[in-house]
Amino acid sequence: MTGPISRNRLLGSLEEAASWPGADQGTVVTLATVLVAARADAEGSRYFRDLSERKPADATVQALAGFFQVRSGHDVTAAIAKLDQAATMDVGLPHYFRGLALVGLLPGGGPSGAGHAAADASKRADQAIADLEFVLAARDHFPVALLRAAYQGLARAYLLLGRQQQADEALRRSGLGPAATDRTPVFTSFSVTTRDGMRLSAPRILSPAADVHVCLSYDFGDFAFIQTGAGVVAIDAGTSPDRVRAAMADLGPANHAPISHLILTHAHFDHIGGSEAMRGPGTKVIASAGFPAEAERQRHSSIPFDYLIGTGASPASDVRPDRLISERTSLVIGGTEFVLIPVRGGETPGALMVYLPASGLLFAGDVMMPYVGVPFDAEGSPEGLLDAMRYIRELAPRQLIHGHTTLTENFTIEALAGLEPALTELREFALARIGENMTLPHILDLAYLPALLRDHPTAVVPYLVGRDCFIARLYHQRAGYWQPDGQGLDERSPEEKAAALDLLAGGKPEAFVTAAAALADQGDVALALEVLTPGLLRHPGSRELAELRQAVLIRLMEERQFWDPFGFEVYAELTGAQLSPVG
User: Fold this and answer.
1) How far is residue 507's CA from residue 516's CA, in Å, rounded to a whole number?
2) What integer pLDDT is reported at residue 110 of this predicted model?
3) Minimal CA–CA distance to 195: which of 580, 583, 582?
4) In what order do the strands lie in the sheet with 212-216?
5) Mean pLDDT for each consecutive 10-residue tract of the chain (583 residues)?
């Protein structure tokens, strides 16, 4: 093969959108991380070289042209000159990408020897350290997802200069483990460990208004505390009481008043599990009228992935509200007005949004969840998602607070202006293709990108994060279990399919290894896993198959590290990877 079999839909759409006039910087940076994860350095070098010629005043684009030129190994001296020039044009991302590029040029394995090459390496290490230490000193101005690679790069530069103690500390803060200095840069805010489960970012407190404190990434789901004249009102409760208590301890005296009310946005485990830590003798629990039915359904389902909540969690499952809300209701507590708004939403039918008119904050729960329901469960409504978005647009809050950190950071009220019409257009497009009996993979491969997003640059990344899931949910809710191409008519187990493939392989595990390695090398990493899984079913004792599967799973984690927490978590659990919070 001369190239990959499968189309990288996300990469192609990001390349198109990043080339538009006025493209959002977040789109450009996301594209860079996707290119690195795809091992597409030569493609990145060509793309950003061309883009830099069209956007000579854009310092980030100029820096990325140099960054990928270094990574592709073409005229490194000229590439470093581009990076240096970009760093004079603007501070911030140009220094970040120059630091990472210089780290990539360093020899591994500790201090360098004597001679001209060693002097050059030391000079590059010094500059990389200056750049990356600057980034970390100004970390509040950078996405958390970029900080892990900064620590990773610092560790390698410190090692080259013989600064072992600082290298060890940088590695610890990277959360990547001792082998991290030899890995491709890792760009993710996600962490996942056996005990603590999945976190979307480093834990921190967001205070978007006076007396409002949002606890971000202390758990998989976020929760908030609002101080009123009659006690504290909590919104949602995370997954586990111990994680709620950790956040309350960090809040300190700001949260010592009793919790008078606990408002639950919906009945999922990651929003109700820690309620024990919030409920006192006088705490009133409020939820939507649809909460009991959803809670009952949840009690009869199980979480298929241990890493999602972690072995250390002890979630409550039997939470009974004291008051159910069936229509828009204004509730004044201690002089603070809370407007409770039941909606269908995109994830669960019994959702409840909470609006604070005085501050303009809207706590939206998961009504805008881009997966359109949990991807491993039969729930979610594209129509409910669009209905909720229309309601939010008409309400016009100042700021959206979602139930998960990365949603709050990316699915903003500014992005909503373009995201709602883009998803509306996508729905019509997908329904037309479903009506033509087109299969799901073929619809997805069309990689539909509405032209209207040109005028809404902040909506591009949120749209692309949710695009495939939105289409998949529409498809599975409308297509039968027999497909026009015959899929589904005669289902066979994985073991049966593996036996058939083993005939093609001549009964030899080496044939599976050769095919999977070739697929991975040409960028078809998901297809490589499709070969390795049946290969291991037939040849469970093959060390080569097991080791290659591990490497492929790590690649698949990296491909989803910036934008897909559920996919990242699934691949992490399959490989047994542990990734501590950054910093």
Assistant:
1) 15
2) 46
3) 580
4) 204-209, 212-216, 223-228, 231-235, 259-263, 284-288, 323-325
5) 86 98 96 97 98 97 98 95 97 97 82 59 96 97 96 95 96 87 91 94 96 97 96 96 95 81 96 94 96 89 85 86 97 98 92 98 97 88 96 98 97 98 98 95 97 98 97 93 86 95 97 97 96 98 97 96 94 93 92
pLDDT of residue 115: 52
Residue type (1 letter), 552: V
CB 160 within 8 A of CB 110: yes
Helix (H, G, I), strand (E, B) or coil at 270: helix
Rg of the chain in Å (alpha carbons)? 25
Nearest to 263 by CA among 174, 200, 355, 191: 355
Whose tokens are 């990145």? That residue is 44
| H runs (alpha helix) in 91-228 | 93-104, 116-137, 144-160, 164-174
In order of 26, 238, 316, 377, the CA distances from 268 in angstroms are 30, 9, 11, 12
Predicted TM-score of the model (pTM): 0.95
Stated length of the chain: 583
Q: For 487, list phi and psi in degrees, rounded to 5.
A: -60, 135
286 with 323: CB under 8 angstroms?
A: yes
Please give the Cα distance from 547 to 549 (Å, whole number).
5
User: CB of 371 within 8 A of CB of 385?
Assistant: no
What is the distance between the alpha carbons of residues 514 and 542, in angstroms, rounded to a whole number? 13
Crossing angle of helices 413-435/460-478, nearest 10°? 30
Residue 246, class by beta-carbon neighbours within 10 Å (0-12 exposed, 13-18 middle, 19+ buried)? Answer: middle
Please name the amino acid found at residue 564.
D
Token reading at 223: 């929760």
What are the tokens at 475? 């498809």
Q: How many helices (H) and strands (E) does the chain have?
A: 23, 14
Beta strands in 239-359 (DSSP E): 259-263, 284-288, 323-325, 329-333, 336-343, 351-356
